[in-house]
Structure formats: C-alpha cells, structure tokens
Amino acid sequence: MRLMAVRTSARLRRGLSTLDALLPVLSVAAALGVWELVSRTGLISERDLPAMSTCVRALWHLLETGTFWHELLLTVRGWALGLAVATVLAVPIGIVLGSSDLAGRAFRVPIEFLRPIPSAALIPLLFLTLGTNLKSEIFLAAFGAFWPLLVQTMYGVRDLDPVALDTARSFGLGPVERLYRITLPSTVPYIATGLRISSTVSLILAFTAELFMGIPGLGQAVNVAGAFGLTDQLYALALATGFLGVAIHIVSKAVERRALRWHPSQRRAAA
Amino acid sequence: MLEIRHLGKTYGSGERATRAVGDVDLTVTEGELVCVVGPSGCGKTTLLKCIGGLLRPTSGEVVLRGRRVTDPPEEMALVFQDYSRSLMPWTSVRNNVLLPLRHKKLARAERSRLVEEALDAVGLTRFIDHYPWQLSGGMQQRVAIARALAYQPSILLMDEPFASVDAQTRGDLEDLVLSVRERFGVTIVFVTHDIDESVYLADRIAVLTHAPTEVKELIAVDLPSPRDQIATKELPDFARLRAHVYRLIKRERPAAGDLADEEALAATRAET
Amino acid sequence: MSGRAWRVTKIGAEIAVPLAILLAWQLWTASAHQARFPRPTTIAVEFQKLWLFSQFDEHVVPSLERIGAGFAIAVVAGIALGIPLGLSRRAHRVAMPHIEYWRAMPPPALLPISVILEHSIANRQKIAFIAFFCIFPVLLNTIDGIRGIDPTLLETARSYGVPRRARIRRIVLPAAFPQIVAGMRNSLALAVIMMVLSEYFSSTSGVGYVLLISKNTFQLVPMWAAIVLIGVLGYVLNLLFLLVERRVLAWHRGWRAALPD
User: Fold this and answer.
1) Smallest Cα distance from C113 to chain B, Å
2) CB contact under 8 A, A9 and B270
3) How far is the CA of B215 from the CAs of A204, B207, B256, B265, in angstroms?
4) Model pTM?
5) Domain C36-258 belongs to what topology?
6) Between B77, B134, B270, which is nearest C160 by CB?
7) Has the ipTM of the complex gone over 0.95?
8) Which CATH superfamily is B2-75+191-271 part of?
C-alpha cells in the first residue's frame, strides 16, 4: 500500500510541467540579475559589492591560476584528514560507550560538557601549542567532527536489536565476531548520518583554522584578499568556497544514502 | 437534498491518466442514511472527497440543496477513517471539537454549549480536558464524530469511520451513529467496505463497481426501526439483503488499474 | 551483582569519572609547570575574578545580546520563510537552489565580506552574521516539519471550512512545532559559535574579543578563563533551552509514547 503510494507520487512528480522544471534555473538567474542591478545602480556601492559580472570574471581568472587549485587542494586535505582522524577515534569510542551502560554513564557528564564547546574557542590555544601549521588545522577539524560521529555511533549501538545479539551468542559467535558481524553492520547507517554532519563541520573548521591562523589554503586566501581590499577576488573566493561546500555536501549525502539504502527503517538522526 | 450527477474523476492526463470514478449518479433525500459499499480500491474515498468539495471532479457535478459544490460546503461535515490522524494531538478534546466552530460567528457561550452538547451525545463529557491520545481508539473516533456534530451540519459524510476499531466498539459506534441521526436529524452518507455494517445502518445502499466506479445497484433496506445489534441481525430479511449485496460485490472481479484510492492519496498530498 | 548495587555503581561512576579527570589534570599541570597549561584551580580563580562579575557587563553582556538578537531574528525569519516554502511546492522549487548553496557555505568565508558591507564594527554587522547562518536549521526544519504533516489533519480542517490563516495558526504551526524546536536548538548552538567567530575576527568587546586580546598579549590564564566561559555559555544555553522545550512539548512526548509502534 505504502509503496504504491510512493510510486504513484513519484510518477506524478515526473509529470511536472516545463515551468516547474525551469523554476530553479529561473530563480538563480533572477538572483544573479538582482545582484548585478543592486551594484550597478549603486544601491550598494560597487566598492563594497562589485557587480555580479565582475565577480564571475574574477572567479573565472581564479580558476585559470594554479595557486587557486593548490589552495583548494590544501583545504580539501585539511577537511579529509580532520574527518579521518575524527572517524578513527569516534567510532571505536562510540561503540565502547554505546555498548557498556557503565562506561556510557561514566563519561556522560564530560561529553555533555565538551560537546557544546565551540571549537573556535580553541584557536588561541592552538596558536600557542601546536602552532600555525597543518597539525592545528587537523586538530581543530577533528575536534569539531568528533562529536556528531561519537553521538551517532553511540546512538546506533544502543538502538541495536538485542534479539540479534542474543541469536548470535546462541550460535556461539565470539565477542569479536559479534562486533563485526552484528554490531558494526547495523550501526553503519547511524555512522553514515554522523559522517554527513561531521563532514560539513570538518570543512568549516579546516577553513576557520586557515582563516584565523594563517595556515595556507582557501581560508588564508580569503583573509588576505579581505585584508588587502581586493574586493572582487574576495567575492570570487567566497563563491568558490560555497561551491566547495556544496560539492562536499552532495558527496556525503550520496554516501549516506548508499549506507541507508539497505536499512531505511533505521533512518533517524540523533543530532 | 444532495444530487450527484454524472460524476467522474480522472487523475493525471494523457498516458498517465487513471480513471478512478467513472460515472456516478446518486440522489440522497433529506434525513436519509445512505451507505456506499464497493470492492476495496474502487475509488470510494475519491468519490467522497469529490462530494465533500475537497477534490474537483473532472466531469459531472455535485449539487447540495440547489447549490453546486466547488469548495467544502458549510453545512457538510466529514469524518475520516484515521481518527488518530484527524485529531490534533497537541491540544485537548475540547479544543479539537472547537476547531470548526472558531471561525463561525457565534457567542462564546454558544460555542461551549455546542461543544458540551456534542460530547454529551457521544458520551465523552468526562474526557473533555484530556488529550486525544490519552483515549482509546473507539473514544478517539467518538471525538471526531462529536466534532462533526458540534459543527451542526445538515449532512454528514463518513469515510469508513470504523474500519480500524475492534468489533465490540464497532457495534457501539454504529448504534451511536443511529442515535445521533435520531437526535440531530442529520442526513448521512456512510462509506464502508463492511457489508453487515451497511445493511445494519442504511435506509438505502449504493453498491459500486470497480474503478472507474459507477453505481451498480441501489438497494432499499426495509428493515424495521429502531435497529438492534442482535434482533435486527437475526431477521431473515437481514440475511437476504446481506447475501444480495455480497453477491453483487463478489461478482466484481479485480480489474487492472486498481489503485484508485492510492492515486487519490498521492494526488491530495501533491495538492496540499 | 544485585540491581541496586549496580545502580549505585553507575551513579558513582557518573560522579567519580569527571572528578578524576579534573584531578588528573590538576596533578599533571601542577607537576609539569607549563605556562601554557595553568592549573584548573588557577583558571577557576581567574574565572571568578573576571566573569563574576567585574567584566561581566563589559564583555559577557554584549556577547549575550548578539546571540539573543541574532537567534531571535533567525527564528522569526526561519519560520516566516519556512511556512510558504513548506506549503507550496512551487515556492520550494524557487528557493531550494539558494538554500542549498548558502547552507553549505562555510560561515567564516563571509566574515571579511560582512565587515566590508558594514563599515562600522558595530553590533549590527555581527548580529546580521549570526542571524544569517542561524536561519538555516530553523528554516530547513520548518519546511520538513510542515511537509511531514499528516494530510488527513489538513483535509479535516479544510472540510470544516477553517480559513487559510487559521489553518496555518491552528494546524500547520503546532503540528510542525516539535521539529521547528529541534531546529531552534541547533540554531542556538550555532549562534554561540558564530558569536565567537565574528567577535574574534573584528570587535572591541565581547567574549571572543577577550579571547583574541589575551592570546595576542600572551595572558594565558585569562585566555583559559575565556575558553571555559565560552564552554559554560554553550552548556548553559543548551540546558535552558532543553528545560523550556520539556515544558512546551510535554504533549509531544505523551503522544509519541501513545503511538502503537
């Protein structure tokens, strides 16, 4: 019944009129047009908000330079390493804290206290300890990305069907085998959701570290462009950063969807 | 009072078109209780939504007291099957019954009188300040009926209202419908897929065909009033009518394109 | 182990472990004599000296004002925009590319631009920055919440001829409210982060500013006190929000518990 309803509504969706299909495109075009007008008519002075065409041209020039691509790669590297470190730490810790009631209770207060701390507050500390280098960037990104992953993993393990575990035990599966045959696979959807949330956080913090600490990457480029008053470049870089954010969001969403496909009933986010 | 003339409803257009309602003709007179029965998935819900002004028919028309129905008419109230989904879980039984009265031009005292009277009619006065989810399924459906009564409609449309309650409660609710009709003199169109229920309740039964649905036969039910769950159901006439309706429906073999109500669901989702 | 002993052990662990962590930190910092890692007790004394309450008015109040104003604007704007976008598929199609782009934008990328657009480093620029990024959790949750409303509920109201505005006020908003509240909580956490970022980038007052100045002048103890304050701020705001949420959404918990599955 349910399935049929979904299928028919999908069919209705495909039957969209041409206007509906074009709406997003028209809407983007309209927004770009408004931007151009606001600047050209001087509603906001062109020194503060360069015209859309100027910024797009600046972006185009940027894309032709090797420096831009190099900086982009550095930011992506910070994002990837931060997320990787966070995953390697958060998933095992989450499994331990999720499967043991005692451990979960023991670390509840420290976790509840550390989690809402804005990672940005750690920047000055990193200046003085790890220094202005890749290590700080990775630390900051990993620190921020750690929490959503940890919480999702714990939540996933706690939601595990006890019958499945008991069945496995009755078949004589040892603890290690239970871990990677039952616990891990059924926690994967939750971890995937955590990964999607954390991947956004990791990008933001890698960029933040670059911007505030002068670590090479897109963040530093934005800061320099701002400091030297290269307004059209600043806008072009911000635009590019937005597209990088969109790209990473799309990729992590696709990964999540793949992981959730085999178990859609488990689709629930704790964070 | 209610005339349905050559009503047809088709979802989509071109190759994707699905005909849910073919050509329905039906007249309901003042104070009558008409049951609409049909094989599952024949487009009963679609038909009812067209009558209620929630869906635009593709052809034909619905006329209520000489006025063509295009929007939900003010003198009509609808009770859905999913009581738990048609009640607001965030507020009290009182406020749920009050919902349709808020925009009517009534004095405050008159409003609460209507609410209390309606809840009294369904025997829920004690639960006026409860949340709906604190009540059992049958009680929740009574709240939905009370809400319809408080609205003071001259015609009540009920869409398989008792399909999801247990048999015992179902009998009680059927008797409630009959007593309410007696007390408020309201006209009722009652859609059901339960043949016993239709024979027990109705003055007339409209048996529908498969989608695209049409009225296959109109049956006058001449059982004595007041009806009684035990005595009425023991009458030979009851058994005869029941068997007759059953044969009519059984002869309707499932045809292709049997998704009429699912289509209706998807379409209303898309519209709202 | 008996059930009672087990419960006592768990409560004991919940109290003992945080204390043990603090104690270990204290012992380590006391023995290491690291200027960069002052003892927790030293930080606590400094925290009390700075924030309770000699510099409270000067730096904590402006930060709280910015969080409050930015958050309030974001909630109002997020719900106001979310209602039409949740109700109309067409409006949703128009707005979606913009929402998808801006929500994916790393907020600090707009910091220099926000400064250029508002020449003065006044309260307004920071509030606008906080509000802009806090809109998205509220907006997206409002849209989701409205799209998830049971159609039966809306059709019931429509069949009773409840006017459109009353339908929004009495059905749409309350039904979507639990999800809107979830979005608001995420927004509030975000507001604290945005406050720190914007003050750290450019300002003359606020907790983020204290953080920046004490770092630049190598005053390590005040810097730690500021970090702790930001942590406490995030924690307390979240806690207050949860308390309010419990009261406001009491019906929701009862309803969920009463659902068959």
Assistant:
1) 40
2) yes
3) 64, 6, 19, 22
4) 0.82
5) MetI-like fold (1.10.3720)
6) B77
7) no
8) P-loop containing nucleotide triphosphate hydrolases (3.40.50.300)
